């Protein structure tokens, strides 16, 4: 059997299993998806988050996706469960390391993860942008950018965590066309990470078009997304708030899989599900505790777009 392949859909992911997870007060000001919690509940919440990551990893593996699971026993990295913000991998053997907006999140970068990828995959170079933090510049990986690996476009919503200069630099190095826009939720708050409002798959895209503030830019983004025949599935503000845009297409053993949360799946309409199922199997994962921190399944999965070494 020929395994499904798309440059858009990685067949492996990196996940971090936290031992001391909690909602990070340092990131709450610009993340309206985040829910503040009672400190007294920290131990219970940490245990629940640990279990949710373990179960999600098992379900992904059962779908034929390789999961590289790392432990985080640190107490100073409450958002470590979201590794896609500090590194990304790219076809041709490239890795990027990113500058983070919040000081506490900068401790999430782990060279043991990078060294693991070098040992098991063909890595040609590692480009480290983290020095831009000293200039107050952030670009939080595939949270800040939603990458169309087929059309070579980097979609990005302006925010404290997504700097235009850093995006241009990334796009020059990695051969993407930058497509910046302003995006806001139903209450007018800026979208903090682009990957909560859109997901690009091989044959479809999920996007909250109404979150894009300027009508002309909204039309341009929709047109670019549909250029290669993709179905553009327009999400409502309520669906975005339920993390329906925070999904990722992966290459499973039986074909493409769309990984998303149970909450996101429940928010989709039957016609939207039917459109997705024309080309991918939906894989809902239960991560309600993780979602307290303001991110969901897409944020938990750092895709591996590298070539595996023999053996």
Automatic annotation (TrEMBL):
The domain of life for this entry's organism is Bacteria
Give a GO molecular function annotation for the protein: transferase activity
Q: Does the keyword Transcription regulation apply?
A: no
Q: Check the record and name the Gene3D superfamilies matching this protein.
A: L-arginine/glycine Amidinotransferase, Chain A
User: Which keywords does this chain's UniProt record carry?
Assistant: Transferase
The record's SUPFAM superfamilies line, in alphabetical order, gives: Pentein
Question: Is Nucleotidyltransferase a UniProt keyword of this protein?
Answer: no
Q: Which Pfam families match?
A: DDAH_eukar
Instruction: State the PANTHER family in the record.
Output: AMIDINOTRANSFERASE (PTHR43224:SF1)
Quote the protein name from its UniProt record: Amidinotransferase
Q: Which organism does this sequence originate in?
A: Tanticharoenia sakaeratensis NBRC 103193
């Amino acid at each position: 059997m020929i395994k499904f392949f798309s440059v858009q859909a990685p067949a492996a992911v990196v996940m971090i299993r936290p031992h001391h997870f909690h909602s990070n007060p340092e990131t709450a000001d610009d993340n309206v998806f985040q829910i503040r919690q009672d400190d007294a509940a920290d131990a219970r919440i940490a245990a629940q988050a640990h279990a949710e990551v373990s179960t999600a990893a098992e379900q992904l593996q059962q779908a034929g996706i390789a999961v590289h699971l790392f432990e985080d026993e640190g107490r100073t990295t409450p958002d470590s469960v979201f590794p896609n913000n500090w590194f990304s991998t790219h076809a041709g053997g490239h890795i990027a390391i990113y500058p983070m907006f919040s000081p506490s999140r900068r401790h999430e970068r782990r060279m043991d993860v990078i060294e693991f990828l070098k040992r098991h995959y063909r890595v040609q170079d590692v480009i480290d942008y983290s020095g831009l933090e000293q200039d107050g510049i952030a670009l939080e990986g595939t949270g800040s950018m939603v990458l169309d690996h087929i059309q070579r476009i980097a979609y990005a919503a302006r925010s404290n965590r997504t700097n235009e200069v850093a995006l241009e630099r990334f796009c020059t190095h990695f051969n993407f066309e930058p497509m910046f826009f302003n995006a806001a939720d139903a209450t007018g708050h800026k979208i903090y990470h682009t990957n909560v409002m859109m997901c690009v798959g091989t044959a479809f895209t999920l996007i909250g078009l109404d979150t894009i503030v300027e009508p002309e830019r909204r039309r341009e983004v929709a047109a670019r997304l549909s250029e290669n025949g993709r179905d553009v599935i327009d999400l409502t503000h309520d669906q975005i708030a339920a993390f329906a845009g925070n999904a990722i297409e992966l290459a499973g053993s039986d074909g493409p899989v769309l990984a998303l949360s149970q909450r996101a799946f429940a928010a989709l309409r039957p016609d939207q599900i039917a459109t997705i199922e024309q080309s991918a199997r939906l894989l809902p994962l239960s991560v309600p505790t993780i979602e307290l921190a303001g991110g969901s399944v897409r944020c938990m999965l750092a895709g591996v777009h590298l070539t595996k070494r023999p053996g």
